Amino acid sequence: MSAEILIVDDNADIRLILDELISDVGYKTRIAANYNQALSEIDKKLPDVAIIDVKLDKGDNDGILLLDHIKRKNIDLPVIMISGHANIEMAVSSLKSGAFEFIQKPFDKERLINFVNRAVENFNLKNENKNLNNKLFHSFEIIGKSSNITSIKDQIEKLSKSESRVFINGPTGSGKELIARKIYKNSVRKNSPFVIINGALLDAKKYDLELFGEEKEDGSIFYGALEKASGGVLLIDEVTEIPLETQTKILRVVIDQKFKRLNSNHDIKVDVRIMCSSSKDMKAEIKNGNFREDLYHRLNVFNIKIEPLSKRIEDIPFLVDYFIENICNIYNYKKFVIKDNNYLLNYDWPGNVRELRNLIERIAILSPGEDNEKILNIIKESLSKSVEDDFSVTDTLTIPLKEARESFEKQYLVSQLKKFGGNISKTAKFIGMERSALHRKLRLLGVKDLN
Question: Which of 173, 337, 346, 397 is disulfide-compatible with 354, CB 3.0–4.6 A?
Answer without folding.
Answer: 173
